């Protein structure tokens, strides 16, 4: 049974494959059928189909809770 990953904007994803710059952590900036992530190492942004991204994710580091402030 496929597991559905709960990804939210602001989460940091650890991918199985590192970016060419060597960084494995990416910040989620936009969600949809395509997910936009930014490499924490070099700051480049990538857009991946969600299905493909879910397969590439090794671990999700949830965004720090800042929801007490308005937003
Ligand atoms: Zn990078």
Strand and helix map with partners:
Elements: E1 12-15, E2 25-30, E3 34-39, E4 45-49, H1 50-56, E5 57-61
Bound molecules: zinc ion.
Report how far apart the termini are. 35 Å
Outline: globular
The assigned structural class equals mainly beta
Ligand list: zinc ion
Helix content: under 10%
The succession of helices and strands, N to C, reads EEEEHE
Rounded average pLDDT: 90
Q: Radius of gyration, rounded?
A: 12 Å
Q: What's the number of helices? A: 1
Short summary:
10% of the residues lie in helices and 37% in strands.
Question: What do these coordinates show?
Answer:
By secondary structure, the protein is mainly beta. It has a domain at 17-61. The protein is 10% helix and 37% strand. The chain has one helix at residues 50-56, and strands spanning 12-15, 25-30, 34-39, 45-49, 57-61. Strands 4-3-2-1-5 form a five-stranded antiparallel beta sheet, with helices on one face. Strand 3 and strand 4 (45-49) form a beta hairpin. It starts with 11 loop residues before the first strand and ends in a 10-residue tail after the last strand. Zinc ion is lined by residues 19, 21, 23, 39, 41-42, 44. The site of zinc ion has 7 residues, from loops.
Quickly list its features:
71 residues, mainly beta, 5-stranded antiparallel sheet, binds zinc ion
């Amino acid at each position: 049974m496929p597991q559905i990953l709960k990804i939210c904007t602001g989460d940091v994803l650890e991918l199985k494959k590192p970016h060419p710059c060597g960084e494995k952590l990416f910040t989620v900036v936009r969600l949809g059928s395509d997910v936009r992530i930014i490499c924490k190492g070099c700051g480049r942004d990538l857009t991946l189909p969600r299905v493909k991204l879910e397969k590439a994710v090794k671990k999700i580091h949830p965004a720090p809770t800042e929801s007490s402030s308005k937003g």
